[in-house]
UniProtKB/TrEMBL annotation:
Organism expressing this protein natively: Syncephalastrum racemosum
Gene Ontology CC annotations of this record: nucleus
One GO term of the biological process aspect: mismatch repair
A Pfam family hit: MutS_V
Keywords annotated in UniProt: ATP-binding, DNA-binding, Nucleotide-binding
Region (Disordered), start-end ranges: 326-348
Coiled-coil portions: none
Domain of life: Eukaryota
Keyword ATP-binding assigned: yes
Family: Belongs to the DNA mismatch repair MutS family.
GO molecular function: ATP binding; ATP-dependent DNA damage sensor activity; mismatched DNA binding
Protein name: Muts domain V-domain-containing protein
Length: 379
């Protein structure tokens, strides 16, 4: 049709399309000096800078037919999709089973790939928790440097473990590592370690975050207390509990009292016997890993035989502010004083561009060389 118009009028016509106009014709501006020079068959003439746009009655009829055909296609497609959805609804249970099977296959393939390409080991399930050279599964993948592996052991005689150490020494990573390895093992996955013997847990209770809840008008301290109350109410002899720096939302002395009371409650949590008729059967108690900066707890809770104190040491280098090392157990006669990690924490602040005067003052206060009268005065 367009070729016929071009031959009959001897004009350089081109067919164009837009979503608003549909199909229309265009002509370069130099080919027609004015609208009067165009043939009468061309209507709806629009002159632009470089082109003249117009249409014909025949072209408008074709556009109308195309719109009607498109509308009919939409109606037919809608009817077809509605019928198809009705068929799906009658067989929705099959689709759920197929999706579950695909998800399970994807999970098993992921387990197979992870244990093949990574240094993972098959875990065992016993009455004690023993991990040799365990690594955090997420840090083990995303961290470019080699991950510092840590050993973990917990039994009925060491069911409550206090983890102390400097900032960035890896306390939070250590306790999360134990929880994640337990979850991975009970899912059926291999775990990142050289050896892993884990306990079957009915639940993993955690108190990790320290954020305020604005929509409930709750401060960070109240959020801590609410989560702690939930842990104490739901802990069982088969539970795994991880707590990270409880009491950060209040004063240190108030925090020490609250934390000590919470720790005693967890330490003295009820013990269950696997077979109550057999006195020789294995006893079970909840295992708790408690990371804190309140070093006074190591002395206050030393009277309980099932309390173990661990300290994550840190090495400060020029290339990296703090490099964590493996956890070491503290003897009962060598429990950490409050200022044991202050020097390394302040040295870590030096790597974060904290001013020299602030670091000097912080060392004086931490070592007790500045009393209340001299605090705040210029030297």
């Amino acid at each position: 049709m367009v070729e016929g118009y071009a031959e009959s009028t001897s004009l350089e016509l081109k067919l164009q399309f837009s979503a608003v106009k549909g199909f229309y014709l265009t002509l370069p501006t130099p080919a027609a000096k004015s609208d009067d020079e165009l043939p009468d068959m061309f209507i709806n003439v629009v002159r632009k800078k470089r082109t003249i746009e117009f249409a014909t009655l025949e072209l408008l009829q074709h556009n109308s037919r195309a719109e009607e055909a498109l509308t009919e296609i939409y109606l037919m497609s809608n009817s077809t999709v509605t019928e198809l959805l009705q068929v799906f609804r009658s067989h929705i249970s099959v689709l759920y089973k197929v999706s579950e099977a695909i998800a399970m296959l994807d999970l098993l393939v992921s387990f197979g790939v992870s244990c093949t390409v990574s240094k993972y080991v098959r875990p065992e399930f016993t009455s004690t928790l023993a991990i040799k050279a365990g690594r955090h599964p997420i840090t083990d993948i995303i961290q470019k440097e080699p991950v510092v592996a840590n050993d973990t052991f917990a039994s009925l005689s060491s069911s409550f473990q206090i983890i102390t150490g400097a900032n960035m020494s890896g306390k939070s990573t250590y306790i999360k590592q134990v929880a994640l390895l337990t979850i991975m093992a009970q899912m059926g996955s291999y775990v990142p370690a050289e050896y892993a013997s884990l306990r079957l847990c009915d639940q993993v209770l955690s108190r990790l975050a320290n954020d305020s809840v604005l929509d409930m008008n709750t401060s960070s301290f109240m959020a801590e207390m609410r989560e702690t109350a939930y842990v104490l109410q739901h802990v069982t002899p088969h539970s795994l509990v991880i707590v990270d720096e409880l009491g950060r939302g209040t004063a240190p002395y108030d925090a020490l009292g609250i934390v000590a009371a919470v720790c005693e409650t967890l330490i003295l949590s009820r013990v269950s016997q696997i077979n109550e008729k057999d006195p020789a059967s294995i006893l079970k108690q909840a295992i708790c890993f408690f990371a804190t900066h309140l070093h006074q707890l190591t002395r206050a809770l030393a009277v309980y035989p099932n309390v173990v104190c661990l300290q994550l040491d840190a090495i400060i280098t020029q290339a990296r502010p703090i490099r964590t090392t493996t956890a070491r157990s503290l003897a009962r006669s060598d429990r950490s004083p409050p200022t044991m990690t202050a020097g390394k924490t302040i040295s870590g602040a030096r790597r974060r561009a904290v001013r020299c005067a602030i670091r000097t003052k912080s060392r004086m206060v931490a070592s007790g060389r500045t009393n209340s009268t001299g605090f705040g005065r210029r030297s």
